[in-house]
């Protein structure tokens, strides 16, 4: 394609010096556009500001003027923005006040750059970020995912807007708005990407807790499971249950995590909660074991030891040995801390290692062999002891329950 020669602006320059008010709409647009395209950014800005003052009825130049401002003040390195931050945001406001959200407008590019700058700061100013989002009409944003040159797909502009708006509302403790924005997001024909939907659900659920809508929050957290990176769903549910007086549910989740986690220093906080739990009971042996285990684990790993002493009979045992003893004793006395039930296995798939327990007034209760306390052979007609743990049935899209911490009591073939 033949390269277009730059337009000679001599006549425009002379006319602008003599009488800028003599430009019509096309001429003003053409002049500012050519100045910008030829790299005369400062001249384009000067011309644009002059037309704003003297050019009544002129509008075609505004987006080109906005892009000249964008090139000079907005599309620069963060270090340069930091040096003149007030100027940067005043230009953002100017572009937002002049340019419409339309094709060939610098508005979206300007707001995106400003948001990126704000999000790169520590801490993030969520008030400022929220104000920037408000300069865009979300209904005008595209729902088409962005695809880069390598063919990789990213979130759409509308998806990004809702993701950030929900986060801002949560961080600003505007929990009612957070829930409302999330609800609006769910009604949009958005293709969600890279855990964005789960994060929106997480902030919505967390806001529901603050709004004391606990049942809704619980159901949302159950449906999320462990889908949120760096968020411990167990801890979220444990705190929710403890803060709403559902101590049995909290302790059931606590013991189940203890059962699943095994012996590892990474679960020190979990073991501390176990100690707090067993102290609520009357079994002194379990209390002493939990105290000794935690003491030895901390001491062996050079952690601060808050306990003054441990029972003499445990002083020569290492933390691994104490863990095994604590595990066995805790599992033998579960009924002292959490509710236990009895039921009969009515179905078991040996290949897939899952089955169900009969319930008279409800659907049969699901269980997995891996949730047995001890390594037992599971058979149909076994009478088992178990605890109930709330979960989420994704097939039926509703909260459910499953049997955990199972133990075979006896076989009853007269079902």
- Can you tell me the CATH class of the largest domain? Mainly Alpha
Gyration radius, to the nearest Å? 32 Å
Strand order of the largest sheet: 5-4-3-6-7
**DSSP strand tally:** 7
CATH topology of the largest domain: Serine Threonine Protein Phosphatase 5, Tetratricopeptide repeat
What class, by secondary structure content? alpha+beta
Shape: elongated
Number of domains: 4
Give the CA-CA distance, first to last residue: 85 Å
* Helix amount: 40-55%
Q: Tell me, rounded to a whole number, the average pLDDT.
A: 93
CATH architecture call of the largest domain: Alpha Horseshoe
The biggest beta sheet reads:
5 strands, antiparallel
Residue ranges: pLDDT <50 for 5 or more in a row? none
How much of the polypeptide forms β-strand, as a percent range? 5-15%
């Amino acid at each position: 394609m033949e390269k277009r020669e730059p337009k000679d602006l001599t006549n425009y320059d002379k006319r602008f010096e003599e009488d800028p008010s003599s430009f019509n709409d096309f001429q003003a647009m053409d002049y500012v556009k050519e100045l910008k395209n030829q790299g005369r950014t400062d001249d384009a800005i000067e011309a644009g500001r002059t037309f704003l003052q003297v050019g009544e009825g002129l509008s075609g130049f505004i987006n080109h003027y906005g892009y000249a401002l964008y090139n000079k003040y907005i599309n620069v390195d963060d270090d340069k923005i930091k040096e003149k931050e007030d100027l940067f945001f005043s230009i953002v406001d100017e572009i937002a006040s002049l340019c419409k959200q339309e094709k060939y407008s610098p508005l979206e590019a300007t707001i995106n750059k400003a948001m990126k700058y704000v999000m790169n700061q520590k801490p993030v100013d969520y008030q400022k970020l929220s104000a920037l989002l408000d300069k865009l009409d979300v209904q005008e944003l595209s729902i088409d995912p962005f695809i880069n040159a390598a063919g990789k797909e990213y979130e759409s502009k509308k998806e990004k807007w809702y993701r950030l708006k929900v986060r801002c509302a949560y961080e600003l403790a505007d929990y009612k708005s957070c829930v409302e924005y999330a609800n609006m997001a769910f009604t949009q024909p958005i293709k969600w990407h890279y855990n964005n939907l789960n994060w929106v659900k997480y902030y919505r659920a967390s806001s529901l807790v603050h709004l004391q809508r606990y049942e809704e929050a619980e159901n949302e957290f159950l449906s999320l499971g462990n889908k949120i990176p760096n968020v411990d769903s167990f801890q979220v549910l444990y705190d929710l249950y403890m803060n709403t007086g559902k101590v049995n549910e909290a302790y059931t989740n606590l013991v189940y995590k203890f059962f699943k986690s095994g012996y590892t220093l990474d679960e020190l906080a979990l073991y501390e909660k176990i100690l707090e739990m067993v102290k609520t009971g009357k079994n002194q042996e379990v209390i002493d074991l939990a105290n000794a285990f935690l003491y030895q684990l901390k001491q062996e790993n050079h952690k601060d030891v808050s306990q003054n002493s441990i029972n003499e009979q445990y002083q020569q045992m290492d933390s691994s040995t104490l863990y095994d003893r604590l595990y066995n004793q805790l599992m033998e006395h579960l009924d002292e801390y959490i509710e236990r039930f009895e039921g009969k296995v009515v179905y078991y798939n040996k290949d897939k290692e899952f089955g169900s327990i009969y319930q008279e007034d409800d659907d049969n209760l699901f269980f997995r062999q891996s949730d047995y306390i001890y390594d037992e052979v599971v058979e149909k007609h076994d009478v088992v002891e178990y605890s109930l743990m709330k979960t989420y049935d994704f097939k039926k899209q509703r909260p459910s329950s499953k049997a955990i911490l199972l133990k075979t009591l006896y076989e009853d073939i007269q079902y």
